[in-house]
Design brief:
Layout lengths: L1 H8 L4 E5 L2 E4 H17 L7 E5 L4 H12 L3 E5 L4 H11 L3 E5 L3 E5 L10 H8 L4 E5 L9 E5 H6 L10 E3 L7 H13 L2 E4 L5 H11 L3 E4 L1 H10 L1 H4 L7 E4 L6 H10 L4 E4 L1 E3 L3 E3 L1 E3 L6 E4 L4 E6 L2 E6 L5 E2 L13 E10 L2 E7 L4 E3 L2 E3 L1 H8 L5 E11 L3 E10 L6 H15 L8 E4 L14
Parallel strand pairs: 1-10, 3-4, 3-5, 4-7, 9-10, 11-12, 12-13, 26-27
Antiparallel strand pairs: 1-2, 5-6, 7-8, 8-20, 14-15, 16-17, 17-22, 18-19, 19-21, 21-22, 23-24, 25-26
């Protein structure tokens, strides 16, 4: 395996810092070898589907790599929601469930031998290749199970050059962005710092303690970092780059971040579970425009929607049809974008569009305008039913603690929106809350 060869070259370099424990790439090689022997003892075979329960840890990463070497089909499940976990185990039709805490536990699924795994899985198994099953969030129904050729997915990291960098592994173990961070680090001989909790003060503490250089995260978490003022309590001067993705970045939030971190490079990333993560370039640190520079991916814009065709895209869905893909392999991302020359700007998701009497409103546009106000620390825009226009815009806002006159704050917000937004985009309802709801993956709940 390409990665194993790289590990041998990096043996004395630091690979992982996890719960104050430090491990070299030599330690990682030894742990992979240990787990490989465990897999033999437990009779885990090539082509078996293994659900790997838990989030990042030195042991979980080692087991993931051992399973890949064994040409298993890996189903990482990091959700803390027990019903979601049970549902994903059921959909995957796994042969084994593996969990790693203080010690490894591998249990055979009782009905695995009798279940039909489907043509996609059977075809991958017949080729003797490792696989990866990822799930959509399932926020609007049953989650989609997506099958990747894992060997193919990892192959794009073969040309990564060694870099002496330290990354926080922030996005979850079962998220394409989180796996991209892991594979990037492993292929470059970089160091991964694993947070015990994804809270602003803890992450800032780790950045200071371990001189972290790269923070890959989401706009929602970056706003939480500003709201907590953790950047004032800890020395974050080691940061060279903040990469952000998973949801659109409000331009006003990016400008706030640039004021706080003037020496940090900001890179907007883009990827989907279906197509993998693309190499991108931001037009500037102050801009939400990005450009694809990836020989493995191509894109086009059709009726305002971003379509991608990738060498690393999934083999297909295990429990859904392939309506999201065209016959010639283009994936319809559901992201609405505008083009500016070679660059694009993501303005929102099709499913989030608010239809006000036939006029389209993207929540992120409203949020960005409201966040221009210095006394507003967070905001979420969403659709409200309206008897005349069908829908109207509602917002939940979090105000700075020193704001005492809520009614006056609402009036200022409404007047500000009237000044910078068309009338149909102006919120008809403003709720003041103590906190905005977001998912465990640090994306806003609408």
């Amino acid at each position: 395996m390409i990665l194993i060869d790289k590990f041998r070259a990096f043996q004395q370099s630091l690979s992982i810092i996890d719960k104050n424990r430090t491990f070299t790439y030599e330690d990682l090689l030894n742990e992979i070898e240990f787990y490989t022997s465990i897999l033999v003892q437990e009779d885990v075979k090539s082509g078996d589907i293994v659900c790997l329960i838990g989030d990042y840890s030195f042991e979980a990463i080692s087991l993931f790599l051992a399973l890949m070497l064994k040409n298993c089909i890996i189903v990482p499940i990091a959700t803390k929601n027990e019903s979601e976990s049970i549902e994903r185990i059921s959909i995957s039709k796994c042969d084994f469930i593996a969990s790693v805490n203080e010690k490894i536990s591998i249990k055979r699924c009782s009905d695995s031998s009798n279940s039909d795994k489907g043509n996609l899985v059977n075809e991958l198994k017949s080729k003797g290749k490792a696989g990866l099953i990822l799930f959509s969030s399932g926020s609007t129904g049953k989650p989609k199970a997506m099958l990747h050729d894992l060997d193919n997915l990892v192959s794009v990291y073969a040309d990564r050059k060694p870099k002496n960098l330290r990354f926080i592994v922030f996005l979850l173990f079962d998220h394409i962005g989180g796996l991209n961070t892991m594979l990037n680090c492993l292929s470059m001989g970089a160091t991964m710092i694993i947070p015990e909790k994804r809270e602003p003060e803890h992450v800032a503490h780790l950045i200071e303690k371990y001189h972290v250089n790269v923070l890959p995260t989401s706009p929602t978490f970056l706003n939480l970092l500003l709201m907590s003022e953790a950047y004032k309590k800890f020395d974050l001067s080691s940061l060279l780059m903040i990469t952000y993705g998973t949801e659109p970045m409000p331009e006003s939030l990016l400008l706030r971040l640039r004021e706080i971190f003037p020496k940090v490079n900001f890179l907007q990333t883009f990827g989907t579970s279906e197509t993998g993560i693309a190499k991108t370039v931001s037009k500037s640190n102050n801009s939400t425009l990005l450009k694809f520079e990836d020989e493995n991916q191509e894109f086009k814009v059709v009726d305002g929607e971003l379509w991608i065709r990738s060498k690393t895209q999934i083999l297909g869905y295990l429990n859904y049809g392939n309506e999201s893909f065209t016959q010639d392999g283009w994936f319809k991302t559901g992201d609405i974008v505008v083009r500016e020359g070679d660059f694009i700007r993501i303005i929102g998701r099709k499913k989030d569009v608010i239809n006000v009497g036939g006029e389209k409103v993207f929540p992120q546009e409203v949020e960005s305008v409201v966040l221009q106000l210095s006394f507003v620390t967070d905001v979420t825009a969403y659709s409200l039913p309206n008897s005349i226009t069908g829908e109207s815009v509602g917002i939940d806002v979090v105000l700075k603690p020193e704001v005492s006159d809520v009614a006056e704050a609402k009036r200022l917000i409404r007047n500000h929106c009237k000044k910078y937004l068309e009338s149909y985009k102006v919120p008809t309802k403003i709720n003041v809350l103590d906190a905005i709801k977001y998912s465990e993956r640090f994306k806003k709940k609408r």
